[in-house]
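Milestone 3.1: sequence recovery, worked example.
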């Protein structure tokens, strides 16, 4: 891990203002690199997130013989090798801090004609991987974790996988995607049934690369996604919109710092990702979608946020899978809201880059917020933030969330272990300070 970075924040002296464009969507950037590498032909990607996580995915495919020019200012050109054209890597494939990369790569590598080993950093090496290796093994894949079910993952490819009908035990876009990607190589139709909506970038992007994928709505929450193996991906040009998870830090900052009015440009508003907007609106936030449009099969809009002050609420558990990555900064919003905010149904937060429930509870208490930890969430009593020192546990979203909290803290906040911010948002500090936050 790189040298520890400490961020120091101070109370903003005036509201945030201006027009901001955050980097490209991380989920889409990962998938664009993967699908372009497996496609026939040359794909041009614009708006790519050049964070450490996505660069780890790109490095892995380069190590397996894929040629890529760039990235340069978000522009990347990849010459695909086809579904069966990957070559055995000469060394371990290092996924850095990225659970998305590791889990989705398992689905792809399960059907290659070579063995590979997926490794990660200290944080990734503690994350649960049996949720992926178990369904893949039922397809005939040979992938093994360590005895705790964590990385490294050893994958020995098999020539053909068996199709399965898999019911997700919990809503997880990463597990769904891993099984669907393995299904590309299965002899027949593979289906995945999810109990609640999760981000559907894999399904949308498969179609953009010319691969058919069907989704059947079973009821208000559950859906079944079906894919037939044996097809090919066709190269395409893809423009990646801004990441709503990164935009969320500015949405919350503008919602809690008096006098703020900002516009976030060109943000992906895929309905499986807009839970953070729904949660903030339930707390009374003034958020407007401007100039909605479609780009590359994904809905995009500019997001205007104006400060009005927030009120606590009981967050609908059905929104949790649609805002799972944004909950650390939502908890900061709750700390600044009038009254009590209840988070439940969010146990999946304990299996992220850190145990985000316990880490946020610890951090909020350290800066003077009254909070009660629960098994599947927390209860936050609003009323403002005093300030203090917090430990991010090298979790990028925790670090950025407390940087936002510093904008209203009476005494500022010191955030330890913030070097991982570069995994998802390399220019966060620059954009935040330009908008009016005081971070050093």
């Amino acid at each position: 891990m790189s040298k520890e970075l400490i961020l120091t924040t101070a109370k903003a002296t005036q509201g945030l203002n201006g027009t901001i464009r955050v980097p490209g969507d991380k989920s889409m950037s990962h998938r664009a690199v993967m699908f372009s590498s497996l496609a026939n032909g040359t794909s041009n990607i614009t708006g790519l997130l050049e964070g450490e996580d996505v660069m780890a995915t790109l490095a892995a495919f380069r190590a397996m013989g894929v040629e890529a020019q760039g990235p340069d200012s978000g522009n990347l050109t990849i010459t695909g090798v086809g579904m069966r054209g990957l070559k055995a890597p000469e060394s371990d494939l290092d996924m850095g801090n990225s659970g998305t990369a590791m889990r989705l790569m398992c689905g792809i590598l399960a059907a290659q004609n070579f063995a590979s080993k997926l490794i990660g950093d200290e944080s990734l090496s503690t994350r649960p991987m049996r949720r992926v290796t178990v369904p893949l093994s039922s397809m005939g894949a040979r992938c093994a974790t360590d005895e705790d079910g964590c990385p490294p993952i050893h994958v020995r490819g098999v020539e053909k996988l068996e199709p399965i009908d898999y019911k997700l035990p919990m809503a997880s876009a990463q597990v769904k995607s891993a099984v669907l990607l393995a299904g590309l190589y299965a002899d027949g139709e593979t289906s995945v049934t999810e109990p609640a909506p999760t981000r559907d970038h894999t399904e949308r992007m498969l179609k953009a690369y010319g691969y058919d994928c069907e989704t059947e709505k079973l009821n208000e929450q559950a859906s079944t996604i079906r894919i037939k193996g044996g097809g090919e991906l066709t190269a395409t040009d893809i423009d990646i919109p801004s990441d709503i998870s990164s935009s969320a830090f500015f949405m919350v900052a503008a919602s809690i710092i008096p006098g703020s009015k900002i516009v976030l440009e060109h943000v992906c508003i895929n309905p499986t990702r807009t839970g953070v907007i729904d949660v903030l609106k339930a707390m009374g936030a003034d958020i407007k979608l401007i100039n909605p449009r479609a780009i590359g099969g994904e809905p995009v809009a500019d997001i205007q946020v104006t400060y009005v002050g927030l009120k606590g609420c009981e967050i609908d558990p059905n929104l949790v899978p649609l805002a799972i990555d944004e909950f650390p900064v939502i908890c900061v919003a709750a700390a600044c809201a009038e009254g009590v905010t209840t988070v439940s149904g969010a146990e999946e937060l304990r299996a992220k880059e850190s145990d985000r429930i316990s880490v946020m509870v610890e951090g909020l208490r350290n800066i003077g917020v009254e909070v009660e930890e629960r098994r599947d969430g927390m209860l936050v009593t609003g009323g403002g933030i005093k300030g203090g020192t917090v430990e991010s546990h090298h979790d990028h979203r925790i670090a950025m969330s407390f940087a936002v909290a510093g904008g209203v803290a009476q005494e500022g906040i010191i955030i330890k272990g913030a070097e991982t911010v570069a995994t998802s948002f390399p220019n966060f500090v620059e954009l935040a300070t330009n908008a009016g936050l005081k971070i050093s």
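The first strand starts at residue 7 and ends at 10. The two ends are 21 Å apart (CA to CA).
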